UniProtKB/TrEMBL annotation:
Pfam families: ELFV_dehydrog, ELFV_dehydrog_N. Keywords: NAD, Nucleotide-binding, Oxidoreductase. One of its GO terms (molecular function) is nucleotide binding. NAD(+) binds at T185. One of its GO terms (biological process) is L-glutamate catabolic process. It comes from Kordiimonas lacus. The record marks D141 as: Important for catalysis. This is Glutamate dehydrogenase. SUPFAM superfamilies: Aminoacid dehydrogenase-like, N-terminal domain, NAD(P)-binding Rossmann-fold domains. The active site is at K101. Residues 178-411 form the Glutamate/phenylalanine/leucine/valine/L-tryptophan dehydrogenase C-terminal domain. Substrate binds at K65, K89, S347. Gene3D superfamilies: Leucine Dehydrogenase, chain A, domain 1 (3.40.50.10860), NAD(P)-binding Rossmann-like Domain (3.40.50.720). Belongs to the Glu/Leu/Phe/Val dehydrogenases family.
Length: 413
């Protein structure tokens, strides 16, 4: 089952009285949850067994699309919920793709490059009959990147005996991947902020920002915001947090990450105040950007959040109990299905180019991403005001309406 938080949010949509109850019930279930056991041979020669999942939430809009997460805590329920979220995201954007997600409960960062390659090839062999360019197209997520996608594509093509570049997205650019200059997810998040900045009340000359998680998405959004005059006063990774009221030079933080270092113990080097990873979440700031994992803002800390706006780049960073508290406290939440939609938009363009057999044109993809995000942000804001619901409920309602319309056209509702 998908998690209670998503069910609560669907109840809010139901409460608006605009959607068909049968359809709402039917989308709560996934089309398929596939469980496979992989055997990974470690460099030491030892073999370990891992149970992993791929959830294909819905084929209603088109082939399923979604990331592959390598993280020790990933669970079947989380995979289901994230796949569901992806369907909402593609529906909100109006893309001809459904939602999927894969999870491998393993710490990718603890594996050698050879072990990661063997894991990806084993994963592809295990899921060979489930994935495909018109069926289910994986992409990177936490603990996974372009290299992993390259190995999956290579193994898939060897097994199928033909070239299928669009079986995955998020590949290295040499293999037809679309690498947007600023990173697609961060670009999309920044675009939403640009579109809604005044409406969200981010009118300070130099809004202060805290970024939780400094991986692919967190590093890129910090960089984009700093270039546009925001002041990054707090950052964290899984090892620790750093505060600096006068603001960080984001290039220094990115350089630290490029060297493979963690933030813990870097307070002197970066002339900052160090702390535990979660310490900065409740600090004073204008904008809080969770870009780590789900469930970071919950019932127990929602009352202490001091930001006035939250840009939810990590999926499910804010729990359903917490978003009620935040709404009561007038803290604006730009929900994940809008805030981090840039990633799937770039994936869509990479997939389309592979399907058509031509190179992906970065400028065209960027323009399309910006236009689609602008439109979704406008529609969500309009619904939020007109229906007097939170921006999050507005996004969910728009997504459900689109799914409903497609289901009717197909004779399924
Ligand atoms: N990569 C994408 O394009 C994309 C697209 C949509 C959504 N997302 C979501 O964005 C989030 C980040 O993804 P990513 O690709 O940057 O992952 P990543 O693996 O590159 O980075 C994750 C970061 O979070 C940090 N982290 C983990 N636990 C933490 C904690 N308790 N406190 C502080 N930091 C912590 C890690 O140290 C790392 O810096 C995820 O929730 C992912 O689902 C990513």
């Amino acid at each position: 089952m998908i998690d209670d938080g998503i069910l609560k949010r669907l109840d809010r949509v139901q409460g608006m009285g605009r959607s068909d109850d049968d359809l709402l019930d039917s989308i709560k279930a996934s089309d398929a949850l596939i469980e496979r056991r992989l055997t990974l041979r470690l460099d030491s020669g030892k073999r370990v067994q891992v149970i992993c999942w791929r959830c294909q939430h819905s084929h209603l809009l088109g082939p399923c699309k979604g990331g592959l997460r390598f993280h020790p805590d990933v669970s079947e329920e989380e995979v289901r919920s994230l796949a569901f979220k992806m369907t909402l995201k593609t529906a909100l954007l109006g893309l001809p793709l459904g939602g999927a997600k894969g999870g491998v409960p393993i710490d990718g960062s603890a594996l050698s490059v050879h072990e990661r390659e063997r894991l990806c090839r084993a994963w592809t062999r295990a899921f060979i009959s489930d994935i495909g360019p018109n069926k289910d197209i994986p992409a990177p997520d936490v603990g996974c990147g372009p290299e992993e996608m390259a190995w999956i594509r290579d193994e898939y093509e060897q097994l199928m005996g033909k070239s299928v570049p669009h079986v995955v997205t998020g590949k290295p650019s040499a293999l037809g991947g679309l690498n947007l200059r600023d990173g697609a997810t961060a670009r999309g998040g920044k675009r939403v902020l640009d579109k809604l900045r005044d409406k969200l009340g981010l009118t300070q000359e130099e809004p202060t920002v805290i970024v939780q998680g400094f991986g692919k998405v967190g590093g890129q959004i910090a960089s984009l915001l700093a270039k546009d005059g925001y002041r990054i006063i707090g950052v964290s990774d899984s090892s620790g947090s750093l505060r600096k009221s006068e603001g960080f030079d984001v290039d220094d933080l990115l350089a630290v990450k490029e060297q493979g270092k963690s933030f813990s113990g870097l307070d002197n080097e970066l002339e900052a105040e160090g702390g535990e990873p979660d310490a900065i979440l409740t600090d004073e700031c204008d904008l809080l950007v969770p870009a780590a994992l789900g469930g970071q803002i919950h019932q127990d800390n929602a009352d202490d959040i001091k930001a006035s706006v939250i840009l939810e780049l990590a999926n499910d960073a804010v729990s359903a109990d917490a978003d009620e508290v935040l709404a009561k406290r007038d803290i604006r939440l730009v929900p994940d299905i809008l805030a981090n939609a840039g990633g799937v938009l770039a994936s869509y363009h990479e997939w389309l180019a592979g399907k058509a057999g031509h190179e992906v044109v970065v400028e065209t993809a960027e323009k399309s991403l910006d236009d689609i995000i602008d439109r979704a942000a406008d529609r969500a804001w309009h619904m939020h005001k007109r229906a007097e619901v939170s921006l999050q409920t507005a996004c969910y309602a728009l997504a459900v309406e689109h799914l409903q319309q497609v289901a009717r056209c197909r004779g399924l509702a």
